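Before any further analysis, we paired sequence with structure tokens, yielding the entry below:
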Amino acid sequence: MKKQMLHALMLTGTCIALTAPIAAEAGGSDSQKVVRDTGGHVVRNTFNNCVRTKWVEGRDICGAPAPVAVPRQVVQQPRTYAAAPQAPIEQSRAFLIFFDFDKAKLTKDALAIIQSASDASKSARRAIFDITGHADRSGPDAYNLKLSQRRANAVSAELQHMGVPKENIRVDFKGEREPLVPTNDGVKEPQNRRAEIQFHNE
């Protein structure tokens, strides 16, 4: 009998340490035999399954073998990212350009400001530029009116050179009638020798 039991244990590949002699259950039938310890308890392996010497399907007193735990498959959902917010389109902006005394030539600073105005229009659906020329009160009114016109036209020409369509530019000139700094007649005021650019997004 001991040889039969040892042979069965070797076949199942289970090593069990017992502190007392092992007995096989007879039960009047050899259709189902399990190994029990001296206390009558069924001996189980490390997987909690009975150690059997014989097994017939449908007559298993130990029940079905313990199910093998299958690791749960975790499906990681793809990450979604919110679209970066678009920068707001500038609706309007004013630019101020100054001229030397009795001149309509654009200075280096004036060219840089006009470039900024042109760049501001690139993101607009339809950019409209209102240009207004001005003069100080150091000369005759009629002369200053023409001088302010030349200044406004110089700014318009430079904007067109930078790619702004001519039809998107409106030109006006005020002479000495709308000074930035009020003065008496005949006073040379650098801040009144100017052209104003008003940018609109239409």
About this structure: The CA atoms of residues 42 and 177 lie 114 Å apart. The chain has a mean pLDDT of 78. The two ends are 103 Å apart (CA to CA). The chain has two domains: 2-54, 92-201.
